[in-house]
Write a structure and sequence with these properties.
There is one protein chain. This protein has five helices and three strands; from the N terminus they run αβααββαα. It is mostly helical. It has one domain. It starts with a helix and ends in an 18-residue tail after the last helix.
């Protein structure tokens, strides 16, 4: 029994460390000036890894219908909803034929708020920390969809040089 608890604790710590590393990477990338692309590779990988980590079940896994309902609400409301709102804070502009993007400080605050809400509700509902990767995949995918939709309206985007990321807000 004690060995099982130690393994569960190690798994939880590893899950938290990996999730925080992924979050730091995502936030770093949000601040970089990058072209808007139609790729969903990273969100899909995060969703697959996050969903696979749920299959283990366990004491904090998804056992009851109530926990599953809370998780679904978190993923739809918090992840997808906040991802779509966060996409509106991403700066977009044209440089020649390329649409570039860069997150703002508001984008970063919304990332932290979203992950905080997910962690708080997850802790209160006794939902495994392993759902954080799934959350990040869904929220990043929702943000990507809205950013791409905005980028398809080139008449509304300012024209700047590629190095013109210095915004006068």
């Amino acid at each position: 029994m004690l060995a099982a608890t130690a393994v569960q604790t190690q798994t939880t710590v590893l899950s938290i460390v990996v999730s925080l590393a992924v979050l730091a990477f995502l936030m770093y990338r949000q601040l970089q000036v990058r072209p808007v692309r139609a790729s969903f590779a990273l969100p899909v990988v995060l969703i697959i890894v996050g969903a696979a980590s749920l299959s283990g079940g366990g004491p904090n896994g998804l056992g009851s219908a109530g926990r599953v309902a809370i998780l679904v609400a978190l993923l739809v409301g918090d992840a997808a909803g906040l991802g779509a709102v966060r996409a509106l804070t991403v700066r977009l502009w044209r440089s020649g034929d390329v649409v570039l993007r860069q997150g703002t400080w508001v984008t970063m605050v919304l990332w932290i708020v979203g992950v905080g809400i997910h962690a708080l509700v997850g802790a209160l509902a006794d939902i495994s920390d392993s759902t954080l990767l799934l959350y990040m995949g869904i929220t990043l995918g929702a943000q990507q969809l809205v950013v791409q939709a905005r980028a398809r309206q080139p008449g509304r985007l300012p024209q700047r040089s590629a190095a013109g990321a210095g915004w006068q807000s």
